[in-house]
Amino acid sequence: MVGITSAVKSVSTSIAIKATGSHGIIKGIYVTLAGAASDKIEIKTGGSGGTTLFTVEGEAVNQLPVLNTPVADGIYATVTGTTARYLILYE
Fold it and tell me: Which of 53, 58, 47, 63 is nearest to 15 (CA)?
């Protein structure tokens, strides 16, 4: 289920999805364009050097649609590889 305050971000490079220090919820991760065998995305809390919550391989179109994982220190995506594309659903 998507809440009223949900947002979506298309990701292909490492990026802050929600600022460090802010609370949020990771609702889903989707691989929308398959990449090479080494492509992956790591979802972290606490910035680029923070704690990894999820790692999703990007070599095939894939989805983790119902995560609903709360985070207390921002959401950061670290992307390895250059081909795969991801959608992050969050609040």
Answer: 47
The residue among 21, 25, 29 whose CA lies nearest residue 6 is 25
b/e code 54-70 from CB counts within 10 Å (16+ = b)? eebbbbeeeebeeeebe
As a residue count, the chain comes to 91
Distance, first Cα to last Cα, the chain: 12
CATH architecture of 7-90: Sandwich (2.60)
What does the alpha-carbon distance between residue 79 and residue 16 come to, in Å, rounded to a whole number?
11
Global confidence as pTM: 0.87
Q: What is the pLDDT of residues 40-49, one digit of tens each?
A: 999 999 998 9
